[in-house]
Amino acid sequence: MIEREIKDKLTEIAREYPVILIQGPRQSGKTTLCKMLFTDKPYVSMETPDVRERAENDPIGFLSNYPNGAILDEIQKVPAILSYIQGIVDQVNVPNMFILTGSNNLLLMQAVSQSLSGRVAIFNLLPFSMKEAEKLYSSDNASERILYGGYPRLLSNKMSVGPFFENYISTYVEKDVREVLKIKDAALFRKFVVLCANRIGNILDITGLAKDCGVSTKTVYEWLSILETSFICFQLQPYFVNKTKRLVKSPKLYFYDTGLACALLGIRDTEQLRKDKAYGALFENLVVLEYIKRNFNELKSEKMYYYRTSDGIEVDLVIERGRKIQPVEIKSTKTFQTTWTKGIEKFNSEYSDSVSGLVLYDGTDSMSYKDIAVKPFCSLWSNFQNSLHKS
Which of 332, 333, 304, 326 is nearest to 373 (CA)? Predict the structure, then answer.
């Protein structure tokens, strides 16, 4: 069993709160982690129809079966029960009494904020990071990591990517999200998700996306919101302090799993992936996502952005650590080019708080160019504690 990086922080914080909520996409390993860490708790799945019916119809009687608490999986299926959990933990007041999991952040957080404010510690668990899954890949090859992504079941059981992701898309992406949105046209929504995958790493053009999909801009905003809260995709906001600067101020779109994105794009093997025009964007997605996972797993409060001027000067990732800012350029090719540092140099000239400029690329050599560190992307998991990646 793969040990999750979030384990130590979760165990530490769990001693301080009566309710623990672990949220993340379907099949990211939430249930496995809960069962591994909280072995004394009975496990209850709210997706089981008869269990859900009992919890909905008689929440007090249902919870009385678990006087010492329980692991309640996919709690967003019965959000009303959170109010009754509040009453119990207020009376008993013991740490980690109820361990909750959920895969729809929107439905969950609305209910949690109303019922469990101040009583719950919230954790985000994404699929395996590259460090967690290091021994499950056959090599350090970037294309393999992009194609397979990080879903635990896929990697641990060495499943075929095509059938796994097709089932994931039809069972979770379409079914779960469509239930929330009450979408009747499954084909249209799938088209929308595919269009989003085609825009990975691009500046988000809502009007263009609406036109290509044949829906209104209001619908695009609504659908994007649900994809984000269901941990399918996320937006990286632009970095700007001085609002008078001529900077691009629209977000860029990425997916929470590159394997899922590949499947939506019809990419089924590494040879096809390396030839695909989306390879560079998917490589960029992989690296940005690794920083997002580290932020979640280590409970860091780092903020992440990208930087782009109106004349096209860009830095792929800007990491804000308190008063310090680190610009990171991401390149999918194997040979270093001096032009790669142009965006970082421009950024450094604009922001005096910028430190430790970094280029991550798909090569093997480490070097320094104009005081900017150049590192192989595999340093993200083989030596993530390197001072180049720390504040």
Answer: 326
Which among 195, 299, 307, 296 is positioned nearest to 250, based on CA atoms? 307
Strands 70-73 and 43-45: parallel
β-bridge mates for residue 307, sequence order: 315
Strands 324-331 and 358-361: parallel
- Burial of 12 per CB tally in 10 Å (0-12, 13-18, 19+): exposed
Helix, strand and coil content of the chain, in percent to the nearest 5, comes to 45, 20, 35
Angle at CA 284, nearest 5°, toward 281 and 355?
Answer: 140
Supply the pTM of this predicted model. Answer: 0.93
Two structure tokens written together for 152: 């635990």
CB 230 within 8 A of CB 25: yes
Yes or no: say if 333 and 362 are a contact pair by the CB < 8 Å rule: yes
Residue-by-residue DSSP string for 227-277: HHHTTSEEEEEEP-SSTTS-B--S-EEEES-HHHHHHHTT--SHHHHHHST
> Is pLDDT at 230 greater than 90 in this prediction?
no
Q: What pLDDT digit, counting tens, does each position of 82-126 carry?
A: 999 999 999 998 999 999 999 876 667 777 888 898 899 999 999
Residue ranges of the alpha helices (H) in the chain? Answer: 7-14, 30-37, 49-57, 59-63, 81-92, 105-115, 142-148, 152-156, 161-168, 175-181, 186-197, 206-213, 217-229, 258-264, 270-275, 279-297, 342-350, 379-382
Report the side by side order of strands in the sheet with 303-308: 252-255, 233-238, 303-308, 314-321, 324-331, 358-361, 372-376, 367-369
DSSP letter for 180, please: H
Counting every residue, how long is the chain?
391
DSSP state of 355: -
Question: What is the torsional sign of CA 309, 311, 317, 318?
Answer: negative
